[in-house]
Amino acid sequence: NKPSSKIFEDETSSKMITSSLFESLIMLLLPLYLLVPVVALNLPKASIKNHQTRAATLSAAGNDVLHGRRDLLLTSKNIAMALIGTNVLVSPESVWASDSQIDLQKYEDFTVASEGWSYKDVKAGTGDSPLPGDRVVFDWSGYTIGYFGRPFQAKGGPQGGAFDKDLDYLRTEIGSGKMVPAVEQAFLSMKVGGVRQVVVPYGPLSYPTGDKGHELVGPKPATFSGMRALDFVLDNARVDRTMLFNLKLIRIDKKDPRTGAFVRGS
Questions:
Q1: Which is nearest to 196 in space by CA: 155, 244, 149?
Q2: Please, are residues 230 and 239 in contact by the beta-carbon 8 Å criterion?
Q3: CA-CA distances (angstroms) from residue 123 to 129, 158, 244?
Q4: Are 104 and 95 in contact (CB under 8 A)?
Q5: Is the pTM here over 0.70, yes or no?
Q6: Residue 219, preceding peptide bond in cis (omega within 30° of 0)
Q7: Could you give the angle at the alpha carbon of 211 between the alpha carbons of 205 and 213, nearest 5°?
Q8: pLDDT tens-place string over residues 24-70
Q9: Phi and psi of 19, rounded to 5°?
Q10: How far apart are CA 109 and CA 161, in angstroms?
Q11: How many beta carbons lie within 10 A of that of residue 233, not counting itself?
Q12: In terms of DSSP H, where are the helices of the chain?
């Protein structure tokens, strides 16, 4: 057996070792303990900074899209005005819509017709306006203005035929339903020589579904690439399928009541 003094010394030594280990452990954990509130305080700041960075990126992207559409309107306006030699500026205002109407656009200085399409007269024509049953002869260009402004018909005027340049114009009888409703309706208040821009929302005023080749309802793009650009947007429900048409009314042909044939207008 150990003397009682020896036992006391062993117990004291053991307690001192335990106390020293405990103090060392506290010294190791203390910096971590002090660091926790610092990290907790900095997390919201970092999160806010990340959101601000993302918001700035999205804002810049949105501005690029908006400026792109403004540039499109200027370009299409210049194409329409190439027929009369005048430049007119148009500025779009972005309107965010639901999933069924993605990024629908509103355009300054355009008049909204009672049917729902919008228009701006670039040049006023002269004479009478066409009536239902009349045949209109017209030139046109078209853009998918709601989706990056892709041209699906960028004709700047007649290309000319062997004997009659008039052969390259399109014709339609008002009321026949052979053109998209908004385009047909737009002609009713135009006069010969007039140039009009028409913004057509997707739906009953635009191209119908199921007419893939646009053989039943026009105007039909003259090129394969134009057909692809138009159909890509019409078939994509996740984009704004708004169309822009530049129209120039060339002449109005009246129907002969005796024969039913159209008589060429002046």
A1: 244
A2: no
A3: 14, 18, 17
A4: yes
A5: no
A6: yes
A7: 120
A8: 666 666 555 554 444 444 444 444 354 444 444 434 444 444 455 55
A9: -65, -40
A10: 37
A11: 22
A12: 4-81, 181-187, 224-234
